[in-house]
Amino acid sequence: MNALTRCLCSYWSSSIGKKLVVAITGLALVVFLAGHLSGNMLMYVGRDAFNEYAHFLHTMLHGVGVWIARVGLLVMLVLHVAATISLTRQNRAARQPYEYKATQKASKSSRIMILSGLTILAFVVFHILHFTVRLDTDLKQLGATDPYGMVIVGFQNWLVVLFYLIAMTLLCSHLSHGVASIFQTLGLRSKKAQGLIQTFSIGYSVLIWVGFVSIPLSVIFGILKL
Q1: What is the pTM of this model?
Q2: Cβ-proximal residues to 19 (8 Å cutoff; 6+ apart), any chain
Q3: How far is CA 173 from CA 2, 72, 212, in A?
Q4: Is residue 100 over pLDDT 70?
Q5: Which domain holds residue 63?
Q6: How many CA atoms lie within 13 A of 125 on its CB side?
Q7: Fewest CB within 10 angstroms: 84, 158, 166, 222, which?
Q8: Any domain includes 195
Q9: pLDDT tens across 168-178, in order?
Q10: Position 120 in a domain
Q11: Total count of domains within the chain
């Protein structure tokens, strides 16, 4: 084992190291969600605007850029979930029988965070298979020529929409706690700014939820059409 590997292992084994991994990967994912939502909102501008956006993504860096982004985001998500689970296990192992109720409440919150994180990870895999790999033949044919139409057809299935709504709700529940935690871990949270940070966390979560769930619901209720 070389020095770099030992350093990385030591960093990962420490609670501070894992907290920083959770915070940094979480921050990257938060920024990605805002950008991804901005692009998805082009569905409301029209077919041409959304298809041009999709074409730009798929031809970026001669088609390599989008896959670099996908792999990088998936790696960050896996690291985020793995570090969170490891931290929770460490906290449980170190817990004392005389802990206060506040600590018990935090433990329950952590378990919800893990559940939502694992569900989101499963959703990301499903989302990639659904809209990127396009296992459905109809979606595969549309995706090559009409990404706008692919989104419409993909969300005409109630089961897909239901899973999407559940995943987005858990995601935003996760964000409402996680965004504030990022500020705290990175040392950017003070008593004076605590209220503002909490408001921002909740506001950002609501914005993300409304934006993402509006698309499948608009398809189901006929607002967005082929």
Answers
A1: 0.81
A2: 83, 87, 185
A3: 41, 24, 14
A4: no
A5: 18-220
A6: 7
A7: 222
A8: yes
A9: 998 888 888 88
A10: yes
A11: 1
Cα 75 versus chain centre, distance: 12
> What local confidence, expressed as pLDDT, does residue 105 receive?
44
Cα separation, 77 vs 223, in Å, equals 32
Q: Which residue has the tokens 């850029």?
A: 65
Q: What gap in Å lies between CA 197 and CA 203, rounded to an integer?
A: 10
Instruction: Quote the percentage of the chain above a pLDDT of 70.
Output: 79
List, in sequence order, the alpha helices (H) in the chain.
3-13, 15-40, 47-59, 64-94, 101-127, 137-145, 147-154, 158-185, 194-220
**How do residues 158-197 score in pLDDT, each as one tens digit?**
988 998 999 899 888 888 888 988 988 888 877 888 889 9
End-to-end alpha-carbon separation of the chain, Å?
Answer: 57
CATH assignment of the domain containing 74? 1.20.1300
In a domain, 105, yes or no: yes
Cα 5 to its chain centre, rounded Å, is 28
Closest by CA position to 167, among listed 219, 106, 126: 126
When pLDDT is averaged across residues 13-24 and rounded to a whole number, the result is: 87
